Amino acid sequence: MGYVREDLIKRFRDKRVAAKISQRALSERSGLTQSHISQIETGSLDPGLSSFLQMARALDLELVLVPRKLVPAVEAIDRENEVALTVGYLPTRDILRIERVLSDYQGRKGISGDIVEIKHLVEFLQNAPLNQKDLKEFRSILDAFEGQSTRTSDKFFKKSLLALRALRNRIAHPRTEEPRPAYSADDGDEDA
Question: 2-70: CATH homologous superfamily?
Answer without folding.
Answer: lambda repressor-like DNA-binding domains (1.10.260.40)
